[in-house]
Amino acid sequence: MFTQLLATHFVHVALIAGAVVALLAGVLGPIVVARNSAFAVHGIAELGLTGAAGGLLIGLDATTGALLGSLMVGVLLGILGLRGRDRDTATGALLAAGLGLGVLFLSRLHTYATTGFGLLFGSITTVSDAQLHRLVVVTAVVAMILAAIWRPLWFASVDPDSAAARGVPIRALAVAFPMLLAAAVAVTIQVTGVLLILTLIVTPAATAQRLTARPGRAVAASVALALMATLGGILASLEWDAPTSFYIATLSFAGYATTRAADACRRRRPAVE
Hints:
The chain is mostly helical. The protein has a single domain (2-196), classed as ABC transporter involved in vitamin B12 uptake, BtuC, CATH 1.10.3470.10. 84% of the residues lie in helices and 0% in strands. Helix 2 (9-34) runs antiparallel to helix 12 (215-239), helix 7 packs antiparallel against helix 9 and helix 11 (203-211) crosses helix 12. It is globular, with a radius of gyration of 19 Å.
């Protein structure tokens, strides 16, 4: 059964889509961790649910709606340009208002239960060729922009005060990054769903941060971990009957838990000796 499924077109599309999303999430993740923006990712994802439901309501597909909704939120968060507690407070306020609107949109859909479940928990095996094409285009655009602004963006993320003193356009980057993040979140929703978005954007990056302090190696490790979790989760769901997003989340967290345990063991050794 497993080998038969591997030969089907929808599995090939799912694996390609998963690899593309993992690559994008793995590259953005270390910057999200450096900027302490995990809650912003969660907020953009849940408001992407509102955009997806609204898109379906007016005849668009869920991915396009999620992309438009996430981009609107990303632009707003970037324009506000808040840091720390103020940013989290603003994100929480937007999240509350947007989710209420999302519930209204979902209640107007005839396929309320099915649509809601797919948006919340993802459905990578139902990605169509058209959605895959859109996913590749969005990823390519985000990757090109990210490559152009990577050095100043990383500098502004790890040491914003020094970056500002050296003339780095902090304000412009504060607007650009949430928009890139919103695009990544919108396409990742198709794989993990809204509720498990952090499992690809944050968890691999957090694991990579424990493996190395060098930015380049951290990005490479984050991408590798995201790829292993995504592709492993898709393959596991073909063999064992459980949602793909469950396996992706489990594999991703297993890597993080392993590095935490290894760190704890290393800290105890000197005390024992």
